[in-house]
Design the sequence.
């Protein structure tokens, strides 16, 4: 089976099994790079069954030496290849997955950022652009993924039931209650700030009809620099802040998991970030 033909069939498999558009796009991008690398090395089209563990090892070194990718990025490429070759084993194109013989790169633990409610208020006050300021509030008070926030349309907001409808990964939908503390932001934004009347999106602009994630992250970086914080605050950090602040207030982890749209509690625990003082207070309750 030609590697390129295998990619096409793997693409259909992922679509059929309800994987998100972004996940599929990421896998295919990673596999195209591996195919390009192998084609250059052997100067010919490659077959799935020709891929060896040595090839994968050399590829990982190529990602380090020539592409200069960080450990997490190199591991992502490895895991994408593993997933594809797992599919190849199921289809009996190959007898075993050569990528499983290659160990992932060791990644040093990074300090995850979770802002307190007070820090979120500081951050909002430092953001000048009114639409982005609302977008940051939306992410902080709902725990939405940035893509979920960007694709939120006006009809997804139900003021009578006090909730909004999020369209999550794999076309899974969930309702998120609107916090009373966030409701004034939402009502003011829709009535006075939202720019485009033609766009169905909540985060609408006159120029494009919707707000980009890059624009939000750039403004976050500018505001953090202005505040003098030594923190890497991103859209994803705001989602983690939402989860952690709920935990700080004693909300059950199962409820937090449901609000985040996680299929597993284990995934939710990765988001939670408590500092040493909070952990000390926890054990002092014994």
Sequence:
């Amino acid at each position: 089976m030609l590697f390129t033909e295998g990619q096409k069939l793997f693409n259909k498999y992922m679509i059929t099994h309800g994987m998100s558009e972004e996940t599929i796009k990421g896998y295919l991008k990673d596999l195209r790079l591996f195919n390009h690398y192998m084609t250059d090395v052997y100067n010919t089209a490659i077959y799935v069954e020709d891929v060896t563990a040595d090839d994968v090892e050399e590829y990982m070194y190529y990602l380090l030496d020539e592409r200069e990718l960080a450990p997490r990025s190199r591991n992502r490429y490895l895991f994408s290849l593993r997933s594809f070759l797992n599919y190849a084993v199921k289809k009996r194109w190959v007898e075993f997955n050569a990528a499983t013989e290659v160990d992932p790169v060791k990644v040093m633990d990074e300090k995850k950022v979770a802002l307190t409610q007070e820090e979120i208020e500081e951050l909002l006050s430092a953001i000048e652009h009114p639409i982005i300021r609302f977008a940051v509030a939306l992410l902080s008070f709902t725990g939405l993924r940035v893509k979920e926030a960007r694709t939120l349309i006006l009809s997804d907001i139900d003021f009578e039931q006090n909730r909004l409808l999020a369209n999550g990964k794999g076309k899974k939908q969930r309702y998120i209650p609107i916090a009373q503390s966030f409701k004034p932001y939402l009502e003011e934004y829709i009535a006075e700030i939202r720019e485009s009347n033609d766009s169905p999106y909540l985060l609408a602009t006159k120029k494009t009809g919707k707000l980009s994630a890059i624009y939000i992250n750039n403004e976050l970086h500018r505001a953090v620099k202005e505040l003098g914080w030594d923190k890497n605050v991103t859209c994803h950090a705001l989602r983690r802040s939402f989860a952690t602040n709920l935990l700080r207030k004693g909300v059950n982890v199962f409820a937090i998991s449901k609000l985040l749209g996680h299929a597993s509690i284990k995934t939710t625990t990765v988001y939670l970030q408590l500092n040493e003082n909070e952990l000390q207070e926890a054990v002092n309750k014994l």
Summary: The domain at 3-101 is CATH 1.10.150.130 (DNA polymerase; domain 1). The radius of gyration is 22 Å. Residues 175 and 243 are 16 Å apart (CA to CA). The chain has two domains: 3-101, 117-284.
